[in-house]
Write a structure and sequence with these properties.
The chain has one helix at 51-63, and strands at residues 24-26, 33-35, 39-40, 69-70. It is α+β, with helices and mostly antiparallel strands. The strands form 2 sheets. Strands 1-2 form a two-stranded antiparallel sheet. Strands 3-4 form a two-stranded parallel sheet. The model has no long low-confidence stretch (mean pLDDT 81).
């Protein structure tokens, strides 16, 4: 059930089966598991999105088992140092 909070944003309840739908790979011998798919968050799909659309994309990705979100604009300085 979705309930709006005071600011009008729908309350989010993650899908219970979210970890069952994604393949995860262990990182070295650490035991850390990363999903087979990650989501980049900076200028997603070639443009700056509205906060509501970005929120929906994040929630959908998390419900599908994506647990790694790349904050690419935080790389650097200088600009382009991550490439």
């Amino acid at each position: 059930m979705q309930i709006n909070d005071k600011s009008g944003v729908k309350e989010y309840h993650a899908a219970l089966e979210r970890y069952e739908t994604m393949n995860y790979n262990r990182v070295g011998k650490s035991g850390v598991l990363l999903p087979a798919i990650s989501l980049g968050l900076w200028h997603n799909f070639g443009f700056v999105d509205s906060a509501q659309n970005a929120r929906e994309i994040l929630r959908c990705a998390f419900d599908l088992g994506i647990t790694h979100f790349d904050l690419a604009n935080n790389y650097g300085p200088p600009y382009g140092s991550a490439e």
